[in-house]
Amino acid sequence: MHKSGFVNIIGNPNVGKSTLLNALVGERLSIITSKAQTTRHRIFGIVSGEDFQVIFSDTPGIIKPAYQLQTSMMDFVKDAFEDADILIYMVEIGEKDLKDEEFFKKINQAKVPVLVLINKIDRSDEATVKEALAYWQEKVPKGEIYAISALENFNVEPLFHRILELLPESPAFYPKDQLTDKPERFFVNETIREKILLNYKKEVPYSVEVETETFSETEEIIRIRSIIMVERESQKGIIIGHRGEALKKVGIQARYDLEKFFGKQIHLELYVKVNKNWRSDLKQLRRFGYTN
Ligand code: GDP
Ligand code: K
Ligand code: MG
């Protein structure tokens, strides 16, 4: 018998969805920072064995959209809600969810198994965890509740085994050696964007999109040329920084991670370009992979 299915992770911003995806897959597929809206896409992480294939999907945190990019991000969440074979709703310890009743009604009426994961218990204590288990069981009667630490890999293994039990019988959806649905350039873009999230303050990172123009690989080296797009001229100056120091730092940090990710020497060229209001432009968003 062969089992396979889609396990979709949804939840509020910053609860640890991307950290869990990476822990489950054992690769750094999804970028992680302490900032909300780090994850903008739906990213598949595929784990295969002899007689199973689990397709995990990471999604952006649930927010009220303020501009078209965020609307597209929430469409990814909606898709994840609808095509799941197993739904993971992730919360963090101490979180009291104030989302509307409608949301929980939808979760409780899901036709597939629902796992509620209370994450970050490494920074909590036994009594608080016990309380949280009871709180979420009441809120999501349909759910199986687990307390985990995605960061410290606590309870992730038992969770994975439970997922295998719940998985439907099905042939594999992807080749067994495939790790993700995204192309190499996507991971280049995301790595650069992560460094931008880490190095710049306030609104700047949210106005950035990265596009990789060249990705050319030889036996020894990968040559990459990527464009960092911003919405305004003033943001371009901020990204580049005094004498180009800020951009240089991003380049060094991104190259370091990319060499680890691809296991090869990387030559990385970064350029900054103004692309006015790309976040609100459907045509641009489609080009960057935000709409179907
Ligand atoms: P997402 O927005 O839900 O995808 O959350 P991320 O995976 O990007 O994580 C948000 C922040 O929470 C990052 O700073 C993570 O390092 C941190 N984090 C994730 N999981 C854990 C955990 O189990 N314990 C602790 N203490 N921090 C965590
Ligand atoms: K985050
Ligand atoms: Mg994320």
From TrEMBL:
Residues 3-169 form the Era-type G domain. Residues 148-150 are annotated as: G5. Residues 119-122 are annotated as: G4. Residues 37-41 are annotated as: G2. It comes from the Bacteria. Gene3D superfamilies: 3.30.300.20, P-loop containing nucleotide triphosphate hydrolases. Pfam families: KH_2, MMR_HSR1. Transmembrane segments: none annotated. GO terms for cellular component: cytosol; plasma membrane. Keywords: Cell membrane, Cytoplasm, GTP-binding, Membrane, Nucleotide-binding, Ribosome biogenesis, RNA-binding, rRNA-binding. GO terms for molecular function: GTP binding; GTPase activity; ribosomal small subunit binding; small ribosomal subunit rRNA binding. The keyword Cytoplasm applies. GO terms for biological process: ribosomal small subunit assembly. GTP binds at residues 11-18, 58-62, 119-122. This is GTPase Era. The gene is era.
